């Protein structure tokens, strides 16, 4: 199986917050009873390629505070979805990869404390890092997908889709009933526990089955 070409333009990125109970607890948040959704614009997307070491550029820490990583299983749609069934949702999945939802954590906390939206902490340029897309068929119904994030050769996140509060196909159905999804849209399905701060010089490796993506932080 080979990597897919980056064929579809990203329309919007839908992120799922607190989809792993352990991650919700590590940040002191309640475990949600329904999917917590927010969005990133396409303008914040940057890509990693399996065949070369990519670069992740951090915002100025003196101005914006620390940037935290959140590794996630990501889905790109190849077809539109509205009020979808699980079968329709599965048929519309065109590509799978790993990604990083980068977050200005201190700023996010300040905004949350004020009851304000999170966009300033989640939507800066480069805040959505995506690997190139791979064929979805090998992942079946996405209920038993494993992935890892290593930083400086240390495993910091170990994802297992069986631990998701809201499984992948259920998420797609739920989102499609909330608002229409279009071909090219990306769904970041939530991060497991182990999130933390990135620092300049960090070397990252995202691993999904036989696929891996390498990046250096600047």
Q: Could you describe the 3D structure shown?
A:
Helix content is about 20%, strand content about 35%. By secondary structure, the chain is an alpha+beta fold. It has one domain: Fumarylacetoacetase-like, C-terminal domain (Fumarylacetoacetate hydrolase, domain 2, Alpha-Beta Complex).
Which terms summarize this structure?
218 residues, alpha+beta, Fumarylacetoacetate hydrolase, domain 2, seven-stranded mixed β-sheet, five-stranded mixed β-sheet, 15 strands, globular
* Strand arrangement, major sheet: 2-1-12-6-7-9-3
> Which architecture per CATH?
Alpha-Beta Complex
**Amount of helix:** 10-25%
Judged by helices, strands and strand pairing, the structural class is alpha+beta
Distance between the termini: 32 Å
Question: Which homologous superfamily in CATH is the superfamily?
Answer: Fumarylacetoacetase-like, C-terminal domain
**Mean model confidence by pLDDT:** 95
Short structural description:
The protein is built from 6 helices and 15 strands.
